[in-house]
Each structure stands twice: as structure tokens, then as C-alpha cells.
């Protein structure tokens, strides 16, 4: 597993951004580096990689990764998102093939932006700006969605536990809630976790009674 | 004969021994027989193949069996309704360790040779020694996060309680495996052919065991396509499955497999030497330069005539793969698995339609054509 410092994924609009460019075509890479010469983007180029890629990502801690979609190294980026607990990065991909337009239209996630046609040094900067903006917007939405989902789930289990306590222990709603909150505070657990334990315990007791 | 709604098909594949059914169907004209004009597109990376399939740039593709499930759950990419009507192959992976790791294993266990298939407990002493001395953890590579390779390597190590946190797992595309092993970037890998054989022939590794020694007869590669594509072009999908099923059946006979190996060598396909590709197609696992090959009759299965349904995507197999994804901690807490997930992804119904169609047509299997 890669050891990584958790870095803030919300990229500020004025700070300098590190770019890791993965391209075996050295000439093309050089023209991109030149095109970004006087911008806020600082480019580290990686021509031939193999497993070194992950080490490089770890060292450079890039804010954006730019890669040719036909590169076999594309798979290694996948492991950044899944196997390791790495923060997701905006990934900009380009390809000299025509059909990338379709990909560009259909990849809705802000994480990966496919660039139409071969990468044109003149157009690199606006593409990167757009990718960073999309990435930020996507992650904000995703974080919000996850939070909401989680809140909903936790409220559901708390309500269920409360109802079960009221039924089995003949408690009032207020008593049930207080008893759960006390357990949570006494044991240093989250209210939600206490609720889950109560639900599973009472349920298994109920099942036990059915078998009697 | 059915008429495909869309005869021109772009089919993605990764250069591997078990892409044989796709290459055979193309080379022997099975696609043509079913009214299809198929272009095979070689891909360098599983992630790129997946993205292109999701985007409709590829109409269908050879996929790792867990990939359509990961697509449906939106793991690693936005969710997409990928379905699989056909299993293309079983088994075929193997775990190869570097020469350096092999020497370390022999030394730590005070033995002169390793019995094959190698038991993972021989690794334990190496893992422990490295931990004790504060040395780097062993690095293993698989081809994709959502792959049988990953779960197999995990199961192999877990069986002897090698702590998964005591080793490092990387993703390396198949085409780069041997080079990584050679450079010492990794200590071992789990990959399909011909890459294990290639490492052995190059004298840089030992194939310690095959996936058949870990799990038997689980789907390895499947045909993947978008549900939407099937809705629009049901006959095209049936024709595609029929042609591939025919190729799988053709690959059952040993002489045909020799011929397949010869075709796979081609630059536009695997671009590798015959002595690297042929063994695993013929049930022989190369182990080490100094050791005889092992006979693994089920290495790379495409079809079995006395058990006609290995190409059918069975729901229990799908459920089993989901269990592995869960146990590997690959399903994030905010992702819920719908109860009917597998029934939506694995489509034995389409497979059965194709079987009926083939019977109606009186298609002759196992015959050498071309």
C-alpha cells in the first residue's frame, strides 16, 4: 500500500498545481511543458514508467494527472482509486484517435476528462483549467450525496431502535432515546452504532422467542 | 438464420492467451458465418477497455469476470449497465515469483527445492523476516483491482494467514508484468498467459502455482456489453455469442489448440513466440528453467463437451464473485448492492436463446474448418 499524506482535494484557484504528465512520446511531452511554461501549472514528465509510476505519484503528489488513454499505465492509476486509500485526483486523458469525442461526451464523472483529438499544446491550459473545475464540482456533489445518504441511514436505524425499545421495554419515546444516548456516552460509541447493536440484539431475541 | 440489426461490430480485447475465442472466431470466419463483420481492437489497459465500452466506442469486449459487476456498482468509474451473456474462459491465471524471492524462500525455510504447487506458508518466513529486519514488504501485482487475479492472490495468502497488510499489492497491466518482475519493481504477480510462461522462459521467475490450484473452474473472462446495446440489437448479440461459442467449442481439440497458438503469435494479436503461447493452451504449465513443466489439463478451458454449460453465465458464480469483492473490502460503505444485481448483470437467458438458435441451425461443432 502506498503511504500517502491525506491532502486536501479541493484545489484553490490561485495556488500552483503539480501535474504529472505520463507520455511515452517525448516530443509531444516537451511541447506541452513549453506551452505551460508561464502558468500556474508545474509539469513533471514521466516517459517510461512501469511500477515506478506509483512511486512517482507518491513523491510528486500531483494535483492532476495527464495521460495518453492508450498507455498501459492507465491501469495503475486505477489502483490509486481503489486498492490504496489514495485521494482521488483529476485525470485528464488524451488520445490521437478520433473516437475519443464519444468518450468525452459520455464520461460524466469529473474525475476523468477525456480530451478530443490529439493534445494540442495551445489548448492544454484551458483543458486543465476545465478539468480542475469539473473535478472540484464533482467531488463537492459526491461528498454532499454521501453525507446525506449516511445521515438518512443513521436516522433510520436510530428510529428503528427507538421503536423496538418502546415495544419490548414499554418505554416512552423520550425514555428510549435517552437510554440510547446514555449508552452511547457511557461507552464512547456513536448513537448510530448503539442503535444498530440494539436492533440486531432485539431481533435475535425475537427470533429466539419464535423458536420457543 | 437470424439477421443481425447491426452487422459491423468493434470488439475489444487484451493480448492474453485466453482471448483465443475472439481471435479464432475472427480468423476462422465464425463471425462472418453469423452475418457479422467484426473488427478486433487490441487494448493495452483494462481501465481503458472499460471506459471505451461504457462510452460505446467498443460495442462489446472481452472482460475480467468481476468487471461487469464493478461497472454496475459504479466502482472505479461512473455506473454503467454492463451485462454478460457468455463466459469465454475458465482458469488460466498463475502466480509467478521472482528468482530473487525464490532464493529467499529457499534460504529462510532451509530447503533445497520447492514442491509445486507451492504452498503459501513458505512465504510466511520471508514475510516475517522482512518485518523483523524492517525490510521492504513483498510486492505483488495483479492486473486490475476487480479481477479474479486479485482475489486468488488474496485467498492463497489468506489460507495460511499471511497478513494481507504485510505485503503490498499493486496493479500492473499484463503487458508490463514481466518487465516489472525483471526490474525488481515487484516480487511476484498473478496474471494470465502468456506472461507467466514468458517470465519462466526468460529465466527470471518460477511459476509457483496456477489459479486452478487455488480455485477450480470459476469464470475468468466473459463477454461484456451494454444492456442498451442488447435492447437495440438483440440479434446482433445472439450472433456474436453464437460465433464465440462456436470458437470455444472449436478450441476443445488439441490439434486445433496448436493451430490457435500459431494464430495468437501474430503481431496484431499477442505478438509473442510460439514456445511461450503454446504450453498453457495445451495444458502444460512451465514452472522454472531448471524444472519440468506441470501438467494442468484444465489450464485455459474454453468449452467442455461433457459439461456443455461452462459458457453459461451462472448466477451462483456471479454471487460468489460479489462475495469476494465484499470480503476484499472493495465495496465502499455508501454503495449498496441491489438484491437483483447479479440477475441483471449475468444473463443466462440470452445464453439459452443462443443455444436454441444454434440447435435450430444444426450448427456442427468440433469440426475443423478453414
Q: Oligomer, anyone? A: heterodimer
What do we call the CATH topology of the largest domain in chain B? Answer: D-Maltodextrin-Binding Protein, domain 2
Give the name of the CATH architecture of the largest domain in chain A: 3-Layer(aba) Sandwich
Order of strands across the main sheet of chain A? 2-1-3-4-5
The count of β-strands of chain A is 5
What integer value in Å does the Rg of chain A equal? Answer: 25 Å
Instruction: Report strand order across the widest sheet of chain B.
Output: 2-1-3-10-4
CATH superfamily of the largest domain in chain A: Response regulator
Number of DSSP helical runs of chain B = 17
CA(first)-CA(last) distance of chain A: 50 Å
Protein name (chain B): Bicarbonate transport ATP-binding protein CmpC
Organism (chain B): Paraglaciecola mesophila
GO molecular function (chain B): ATP binding; hydrolase activity
Subcellular location (chain B): Endomembrane system
Describe the protein.
The complex is a heterodimer of chains A (212) and B (370). Chain A has 212 residues and is α/β, with parallel strands linked by helices. Chain A has two domains: 105 residues, Response regulator (Rossmann fold, 3-Layer(aba) Sandwich); 65 residues, Arc Repressor Mutant, subunit A. In chain A, 56% of the residues lie in helices and 12% in strands. The longest helix of chain A has 48 residues. The radius of gyration of chain A is 25 Å and the shape is elongated. Chain A starts with 16 loop residues before the first strand and ends with a helix. The N terminus of chain A is likely disordered. By secondary structure, chain B is α/β, with parallel strands linked by helices. Chain B has two domains: 203 residues, Periplasmic binding protein-like II (D-Maltodextrin-Binding Protein, domain 2, 3-Layer(aba) Sandwich); 122 residues, 3-Layer(aba) Sandwich (D-Maltodextrin-Binding Protein, domain 2), CATH 3.40.190.10. Chain B has a five-stranded mixed sheet, sandwiched between helices. Chain B has a five-stranded mixed sheet with strand order 7-6-8-5-9, sandwiched between helices. In chain B, strand 11 and strand 12 form a beta hairpin. Chain B is globular and about 65 Å long. Chains A and B meet through helix 3, helix 4 and helix 5 of A and helix 3, strand 7 and helix 8 of B. Chain B: Its main location: membrane. Chain B: It is found in: Endomembrane system. Chain B: One of its GO terms (cellular component) is endomembrane system.
